[in-house]
Design brief:
Chain A: Keywords: Signal. The complex is a heterodimer of chains A (102) and B (266). In chain A, 81% of the residues lie in helices and 0% in strands.
C-alpha cells in the first residue's frame, strides 16, 4: 500500500523536475553524444570515434556557459568520453589477443 | 584439510587488517552513520554548519548511477565542491531539493538561499546540521526494521531489499538523465583469486552496471587489465582503492569476506 503510494509520488516528482532543465541545448547535445555508454561494447570503432569527436565539440561549446553548467557538464562529458576511450582500448586488446591465437 | 587452515589463516589476517583500519584511523561507524558524508568545503567559512548527506536516506529511493553519473556527484567525500549557488540553480542537491519536487506527503524542502529568515533557517538545518538528532536515528531504525538484515555496514542487505521489492529504485529523472537504449550488459565474469585455497571472487558485471553504470567504474576505478592476471591486493582494497572505492564506504564493507570470496558466477 505505502509502496504504491511512494511509486506514484515518484512519478509525480519526476514530472515536476522536468521543466527546469529540459530546454537546454547542451542537454540535448549531451544526450545525443552520451546515450550509448551502457551499450558501448556493441558499438563499432567508427561509431566510438565519432561519439568521442562529438564529446570534444560539446566540451568546446561549454566555454560560454555559466560556471555551474560548465562544472556539471564537464564532469559528465569526461566520464562519458573516457568510457568510450576505455572501450576502444579494450577492443584493441581483445583483437590483438584474437590475432595472436590464430 | 590444509586448504581450510590456509583460508582460516587468511581470514584472521584479514580481520587483523580490518581491525587495524578501523581501530587506528577511526572507529567503526554505527549502522545509521555508515555511508554518511560531511561536506565542509565552504559552509563553516560562510558561517553555516557543515552539510551532512546520508546515503541510507537516498539509496532507498535512487540508484547510485542516477546521482553519481547523471547528477555528477564525485566518488570521494568533498570532491564535487558543491556550492550554495549550484544548488540554487537546480543542480546537485538542488536537482531534487528545490522546494517544488513532490515527494510523499509534500514538497521536498529546498536547498541553499542567499537571504533567509529565522523561520527559513529551520529548513537549512536539515542539511546544515548543528548536532546529531535522535529523531534521525529513530527514523533509521524504523526503516531498518522492515528490511532484510545483515551484520555489517548499515546492517541492511540492500541487494536483497531490492530483490524482495521492499525498495524500488528510481534510475531516471526527466531533464537530467539521458534517455537510454535498453541495457545490453557485458557478459558476466568472475575474477579468479590468485591465492590457492582462497575461494574465488564473485563480481557480477551485470548487477553492478544496473546500480552504477559503466562510466562510474571505467576508467576511473578500473582501468582494465587482462582478465585472470594478478590484479588487486586486499591491502589496496581495504585502503579504498578498486572495489574499496564503494565497498567499505557505502556498499557492504570489506570485513564481509565471504560475500566476495565464494563460488564464482556462472
Amino acid at each position: 500500500m505505502t509502496i504504491r503510494f511512494f511509486i506514484a509520488a515518484f512519478i509525480v516528482l519526476c514530472l515536476f523536475l522536468a521543466p527546469a532543465l529540459a530546454e537546454s541545448p547542451i542537454k540535448a547535445e549531451f544526450d545525443a553524444a552520451c546515450a550509448k555508454t551502457d551499450d558501448a561494447m556493441n558499438l563499432s570503432v567508427a561509431e566510438l570515434n565519432e561519439l568521442i569527436e562529438r564529446c570534444s565539440r560539446l566540451r568546446k561549446s561549454l566555454e560560454k556557459e555559466d560556471e555551474t553548467v560548465r562544472k556539471v557538464y564537464l564532469k559528465r562529458i569526461d566520464m562519458c568520453e573516457n568510457l568510450y576511450r576505455f572501450v576502444l582500448e579494450a577492443k584493441a586488446r581483445q583483437q590483438k589477443k584474437g590475432e595472436a591465437a590464430k | 584439510m590444509k586448504k581450510s587452515y590456509l583460508v582460516l589463516l587468511l581470514l584472521l589476517v584479514g580481520a587483523g587488517m580490518a581491525w587495524a583500519q578501523g581501530g587506528m584511523k577511526k572507529k567503526k561507524p554505527l549502522p545509521y552513520e555508515f555511508g554518511t558524508v560531511t561536506l565542509n568545503n565552504y559552509s563553516e567559512h560562510a558561517g553555516m554548519p557543515p552539510a551532512v548527506f546520508d546515503h541510507w536516506v537516498h539509496r532507498k529511493h535512487f540508484t547510485c548511477r542516477l546521482c553519481h553519473v547523471d547528477i555528477g556527484f564525485g566518488m570521494t567525500a568533498g570532491s564535487t565542491k558543491i556550492k550554495a549557488a549550484d544548488n540554487m540553480k537546480g543542480y546537485y542537491c538542488g536537482t531534487c531539493h528545490n522546494g517544488q519536487s513532490e515527494f510523499g506527503k509534500g514538497k521536498l524542502f529546498a536547498s541553499c538561499a542567499k537571504e533567509y529568515t529565522r523561520e527559513d533557517y529551520k529548513v537549512c538545518v536539515n542539511c546544515h546540521r548543528v548536532d546529531r538528532s535522535e529523531a534521525r536515528e529513530d527514523a533509521f531504525y524504523d526503516f531498518a526494521q522492515g528490511m532484510p538484515r545483515e551484520t555489517f555496514g548499515n546492517g541492511i542487505n540492500w541487494e536483497k531489499a531490492e530483490e524482495m521489492g521492499k525498495i524500488k529504485l528510481t534510475d531516471y529523472l526527466e531533464g537530467v538523465s539521458v534517455k537510454k537504449a535498453k541495457l545490453k550488459t557485458q557478459q558476466d565474469f568472475s575474477l579468479t583469486s590468485k591465492v590457492e585455497g582462497m575461494p574465488d571472487i564473485i563480481f557480477s558485471h551485470k548487477k553492478h552496471t544496473v546500480w552504477s553504470g559503466c562510466e562510474l567504474c571505467h576508467p576511473d576505478i578500473f582501468v582494465g587489465v587482462k582478465k585472470g592476471a594478478t590484479k588487486y591486493s586486499m591491502v589496496e582494497i581495504f585502503d579504498g582503492k578498486y572495489c574499496g572505492v564503494c565497498h567499505g564506504k557505502v556498499a557492504f564493507p570489506n570485513t564481509d569476506c565471504q560475500r566476495c570470496h565464494s563460488a564464482p558466477v556462472q
